[in-house]
Specification:
Blueprint: E1 2-14, E2 18-20, E3 23-25, E4 29-32, H1 39-51, H2 57-60, H3 73-86, E5 89-99, H4 109-120, E6 127-132, H5 138-141, E7 145-156
Parallel strand pairs: 5-6
Antiparallel strand pairs: 1-4, 1-7, 2-3, 5-7
Helix pairs in contact: 1-3, 3-4
């Protein structure tokens, strides 16, 4: 078994769509980034890559490469899974936490789990997505940005 941890941050700005967990969430602000800035999928990619000792998301999908400009992060997760599978691992489980003041994401969690499960070839029962606020403190509390944390367990395929 291997354990990996991932974290990602993105600014929230007007005029961008808010993508979290592979789904578009209605909100007056969206995440700023080179790709679609899906903070949750990026944290999961980093956790997977870390568990397999394959570097991080920036190594495989650099924000300086034109091919990744505005890319759908579901594609990045799929490519990450290809790397993980090539190394002989499968996902045991994913545990994640989103840190954002608004919007509330609880209504969207089942759909996020379905999207992630389909890409990662696991069940929704293998994916935990939690959320918290910072009680109005810091950049998250001021709605200037959001953060996602992810921990994964990988098992060697037999």
């Amino acid at each position: 078994m291997r354990i990996g941890f991932g974290i990602d941050f993105h600014q929230l700005v007007e005029g961008r769509d808010l993508w979290i967990g592979g789904i578009k969430i209605p909100h007056h602000k969206g995440a700023l980034g080179h790709s679609d800035a899906d903070v949750l999928l990026h944290a999961i990619c980093d956790a997977l890559l870390g568990a397999a000792c394959l570097g991080d998301i920036g190594v495989h999908f650099p924000d300086t490469a034109a091919e990744f400009k505005n890319i759908d992060s579901k594609i990045l997760l799929k490519r990450t899974m290809d790397l993980i599978n090539k190394e002989g691992y499968r996902i045991g489980n994913i545990d994640s936490t989103l840190c954002l003041q608004e919007p509330k994401i609880k209504p969207y969690v089942p759909q996020m789990q379905q999207v992630i499960a389909a890409i990662c070839n696991i069940t929704i029962k293998d994916i935990s997505i939690k959320a918290t606020t910072t009680e109005m403190m810091g950049f998250v509390g001021r709605e200037e940005g959001l953060v996602a944390y992810a921990t994964v367990m990988l098992d060697a395929k037999f």
